[in-house]
Amino acid sequence: MKKILLMPALFVASTFFTTAAIGATTETPLSGCYERIYDSAHLAQHKGQIVTRVTLWLVPNPPERIDQAYPVVANGTLKIWIRGVDQSFDSIGACLKSESALSCDGSLSAAEADPCKSKEDGVRDCRIDFNDSGSFKLEGKPQGMLVTLIKQLELVHAPYDGGPFLYLSPTNAENHAFLLKAKKCP
Predict the structure, then answer these.
(1) Could you give the CA distance from residue 28 to residue 105 in angstroms, rounded to a whole number?
(2) Dihedral angle, C-alpha 112, 114, 118, 123, nearest 10 °
(3) 5: pLDDT confidence band, cut at 50, 70 and 90?
(4) Exposure winner among 18, 90, 130, 169, fewest CB in 10 A?
(5) In a domain, 1, yes or no
């Protein structure tokens, strides 16, 4: 398996479309930092939930960097921790405004790995889809930020140059939506 450095490429890819035009004026009121840590009582009641912690850092693009044809209004760094793994699985998403929410593409990994034989959720040393890393939606709620998977999401460990990969699906009731609370950004 050949490994390719991913994170610098992800940042460039997620911001590439934001530099094409000048003059857009789209606000991103949801920008900031958010987190949810699931306690042992919650996890005991939800045996099928593998997600133990979720963080989101949402950074708005300056108005002069927003392209009207592909209006990426923010970049969201989503980090997810799961049971039995100390390190997070991450995705950087280019976010577009969608009604009162944001729709964010998952970061497309440049890492090379064998194709998976199964498309099921969980941690894999293989790739489910080399061309689509999924997507997630961000919605402001009175209690915080609701992160909902739209399309099966691929997340990867730092240093982002290979697997393992975490796959989470919008059809998995225990691991598809997370209500995060605002927190102070580092």
Answers:
(1) 16
(2) -50
(3) very low
(4) 130
(5) no
Q: Give the span between the Cα atoms of 52 and 87, in whole angstroms.
A: 11
Q: Has residue 25 been placed in a domain? A: yes
For the whole prediction, is pTM greater than 0.85? no
User: Is residue 71 one of the residues assigned to a domain?
Assistant: yes
Residue type, 148: T
Domain that holds residue 58: 7-183
Q: How many separate domains does the chain show?
A: 1
Q: Report the candidate in 68, 150, 69 with the shortest Cα–Cα distance to residue 102.
A: 150
Condensed to tens digits (0 to 9), the pLDDT of residues 50-67 reads 999 999 999 998 777 676
User: How many residues are present in the chain?
Assistant: 186
